[in-house]
Amino acid sequence: MQALLRKLLGGYSIYRIFTAGSAAAARALPADGEFRFTEVERDLVAASTDPLLSDCARYHGADCRAFALTLREVPVALCYFWYGERYKTRNFWPLREREAKLVQVVTSPRHRRKGAATALIARASSEMFASGFERLYARVWHSHAVSVLTFEKAGWEQCAAVIEVNPFRRKKPYRLTVPVARPRRHAEGPAPRRVREPSLPG
Predict the structure, then answer these.
(1) Which of 56, 124, 138, 182 is 20 to 30 A distant from 65 in Cα terms?
(2) What is the pTM assigned to this prediction?
(3) Read out DSSP for 173-185?
(4) Which CATH number goes with the domain that contains 180?
(5) What is the number of domains present in the chain?
(6) d(CA 128, CA 141)
(7) CA distance 114 to 101
(8) Residue 142 is part of which domain span?
(9) What sign results for the dihedral spanned by CA atoms 110, 16, 27, 122?
(10) 52-92, pLDDT tens digit by residue?
(11) What is the distance between the alpha carbons of residues 48 and 41, in angstroms, rounded to a whole number?
C-alpha cells in the first residue's frame, strides 16, 4: 500500500514555517560567556577545520548576512540570512522588502546540546532587526523536533505549514500552504501569505 501511495503521490515535503518580528528578544549566550557573537566573513568560515562549518562558505555572497558564535576566535556555530535578489534564486517563501529568510544554521558536533544554536539564532535575529529588517522567516522539516524546539526557545513562532506533493513526477509539484494562528500578543507585522506556486528547495 505504501509503495502504491508513493507511486501515486511521488515525492513530497512537509515544512513548518517559523517567523520572528522585531519583538523577538535576544537570549543570553551559553556556557557563561565563553562564546562570542559576531558577524563572520567567508574566509574565516572557509578556513575552519570542521568540514561541516567550512562547507558553509558557499552561503556567503551578495544579499547575505552571516553570523557566528566563536570560541577563542574559532567559529563553532553559524547561521545565514538571505534576502533581496539572492533569495529569489530559492524563493521557497517569497519575501517582501525588509524581510529575510534564515537559510542555514549549523553547530559543530562538539558544541551541540549547549544552547549554542538557540543563542545564535536569537542574537542574529536581534542584529537583523537592529539593521532595519522587520520580519524573518525559516523553514523546518515537520518532524525535526530538535530544530522546532530550538526556534521556539529563540523566540520564533510557527506561522504556517507548507505541503508539497508531486504525483506522477510532474514538472511542478502541487503546494498547499496552511496558515497557523499566532497568539494576539505576537501578531505584529504582516500576516503570513498563502503561497501556491511551486519552488526550489530553500
Answers:
(1) 182
(2) 0.82
(3) -EEEEEE----GG
(4) 3.40.630.30
(5) 1
(6) 24
(7) 24
(8) 2-186
(9) positive
(10) 999 999 999 999 999 999 998 999 999 999 999 999 998 89
(11) 12
